[in-house]
Design goal:
Layout: H1 4-30, H2 38-60, H3 78-100, H4 105-129, H5 136-153, H6 155-158, H7 162-169, H8 179-186, H9 190-204, H10 208-216, H11 222-249, H12 261-272
């Protein structure tokens, strides 16, 4: 029996798949392209990670073109979907922060120094945690010391509060802005980001709220389907922002959005104005 909820689901799913297909094509068309700026290099790599999460979500959505289970098996997995949606949101934020955000050349330099410093700190910590005898450790330590010096000399680093600077130096934080700040700069309402992120985080950490929902969540139930719909809408919204921004890096790909312009306009408006219904 087709109800309003199931009908809405099919329409929302088709939109999600259209947006996903555009992202895939963008990635294919720009794969192995020679670029010079660090922003383009990072942007392409992070966008690939982003679309990989979107494809993984797609595989979990009932009735999607990638949802293919043997027999009549129905696996409605809101938990895994929510975890992947959080990863999608975080990946977009990093993509925007390192690639799209409009800041001075000097601030870009600071962001990339901090980014590389954090990466090397984490790498060294993990190697030491497993008591690795990898000879590469010496080179990592040398590189880390150079990056540390660059960071200490950077004027943007020295503008940060004392506690934040300590987090940077300790390798505990590799991004100068919070996710809420990045969201707002991208045009996503802070309240929308916080609410969506909090919901997904409950599933990521297996908090009581998520387990209570799972107790009553079941396949082919309309209330359960509504929970999936909410996650699809969040994913679709973030894909719209990612398409908008990736085309800024590779403007020759702008024709790819022609088939989803209406959907992009709608979702970008919704995510930027949380007070309006989805």
């Amino acid at each position: 029996m087709i109800t309003k909820v199931t009908s809405d689901y099919k329409n929302i799913l088709r939109t999600f798949e259209k947006l996903c297909d555009v992202c895939i094509q963008l990635s294919i068309n720009t794969h192995n392209r020679k670029v010079e700026s660090g922003q383009c290099i990072y942007g392409s790599q992070i966008f690939t990670k982003f679309i990989s999460h979107a494809i993984a979500i797609r595989k979990l959505l009932p009735e999607s073109t990638l949802f293919n289970l043997p027999g009549n098996l129905q696996l409605w997995d809101i938990s895994s979907i929510a975890v992947l949606v959080r990863a999608l949101m975080e990946t977009y934020n990093v993509f925007y922060y390192l690639t799209i955000d409009k800041v001075s050349t000097e601030e870009w330099k600071f962001r990339f120094i901090l980014w590389r410093y954090h990466a090397e700190c984490q790498r060294l910590k993990m190697l030491k945690a497993i008591r690795s005898v990898n000879p590469e450790i010496t080179n990592i330590e040398i590189n880390l010391e150079k990056l540390r010096d660059d960071l200490l000399k950077d004027p943007f680093y020295n503008l940060q509060p004392f506690k934040i600077r300590n987090k940077f130096l300790g390798g505990d934080r590799g991004i100068a802005l919070t996710n809420s700040e990045i969201s707002e700069r991208a045009g996503i309402a802070k309240e929308y980001y916080k609410t969506s992120y909090a919901y997904s985080s409950n599933y990521t950490h297996s908090y009581p709220f998520s387990l209570q929902q799972l107790k009553v969540f079941k396949a082919e139930d309309e209330e359960s389907l509504n929970l999936i719909i909410t996650q699809i809408k969040t994913s679709s919204g973030y894909m719209c922002f990612a398409i908008r921004d990736y085309i800024k890096i590779f403007p020759d790909q702008s024709s790819l959005k022609s088939g989803v312009e209406e959907e992009m306009e709608t979702y970008i408006h919704i995510l930027g104005n949380i007070g309006e219904p989805m």
